[in-house]
Amino acid sequence: FRFVDEESTNTGDHKYTASIAERQLHTFTFTFIRPIRCNMGGKLSKQELTTALTANVTNISFLKKADKDAAREIFADAFQHDPMCLWIAGLDDDDPNKDEKMKELCRYMGGFVNDKIISGRRGAALGIRDDSESLIGFMTVAPASCAKDSMIDDFISVIKYGPPPMYKDSSRYGLHSKKRLKLLNERTKARMRHMKGIDRWIYLQTICVASAYQHGKGYGSTLSRSLNQVADSLGVSIYLETESPELESMYKHFGFSTLEELKLCVTGDESSNASHTTYLMRRDPIL
């Protein structure tokens, strides 16, 4: 999420902060957009990753553009109680509209980070479906050549979804929610730092299962084991970020090790939940 260099803008009854990205989007008129190409340079390519997924994964299907809305809803359902999302929102526990606001924020975040992968521009998305073929869980992955955020992709996402909810109406979220959202850039910087010099690796952007299917069903484990199998077939590492000691422990069970506990805190934020810890993890291939 790269919403930086803010300037105040009045829009109807609300005042929100527009970013450079958003202002440039309204400045340029796109008559066409070239296909977005990932930075290859010997790195693991999108084609290699897709081929390996096709060859090694069973009982899981590739997501299509038509699945975007369903994926956003699953993301919102699965992440509305996620520690990072709760930290960003900064809502009071007694807020009567907390669940609604959390789903609104998570719906936005899910579309922003995953649509570019589900569309095939930046990687691949795979999902699990129930007997009626309804999507109940998915994961999005990007090869090393596409693992760094693209400003063009961010432009497209802002065109489609507009600014984040707290930029539209800051009174609906916590005092520091805008700056907390902006701090997620530090996760991207840390990812590039930890994987610097490694050309062939997979970034696990998102893995989630609808809450009704989370416990005892094994769907999340199926997704994780499938990706491990693909990474081993390619001889590459997997990198991810996760948000709680419990999830860190789970990923260790799947062969990941913790590279860093990244602490995020907005300068001047003295609230009781001012700090959030993200666990940066990597799994090396079993050859």
Q: Which helices and strands occur, and which strands form pairs?
A:
Blueprint lengths: L6 E5 L2 E5 L1 H8 L18 H11 L4 E2 L5 H12 L3 H7 L8 H21 L5 E6 L5 E9 L7 H11 L3 H4 L8 H6 L2 H10 L6 E9 L9 H16 L2 E6 L2 H9 L3 E9 L9 E9 L4
Parallel strand pairs: 6-7
Antiparallel strand pairs: 1-2, 3-4, 4-5, 5-6, 7-9, 8-9
If you average the pLDDT, what whole number results?
Answer: 87
Structural class: alpha+beta
Please state how the strands of the largest beta sheet are arranged side by side: 3-4-5-6-7-9-8
Termini, distance in Å?
35 Å
Strand content: 15-25%
Radius of gyration: 19 Å
Number of strands: 9
What is the count of helical runs?
A: 11
The biggest beta sheet is recorded as: 7 strands, mixed
Morphology: globular
Helix content: 40-55%
Low-confidence stretches: 1-36
Give helix and strand order, one letter per element, not per position: EEHHEHHHEEHHHHEHEHEE
Label this structure with key terms:
287 residues; alpha+beta; two-stranded antiparallel sheet
Account of the 3D structure:
With 287 residues, the protein is of the alpha+beta class. The chain has helices at 20-27, 46-56, 68-79, 83-89, 98-118, 151-161, 165-168, 177-182, 185-194, 219-234, 245-253; strands spanning 7-11, 14-18, 61-62, 124-129, 135-143, 201-209, 237-242, 257-265, 275-283. Helix 2 (46-56) crosses helix 10 and helix 3 crosses helix 5 (98-118). It is globular. The chain starts with 6 loop residues before the first strand and ends with a strand. Residues 1-36 have low confidence and may be disordered.
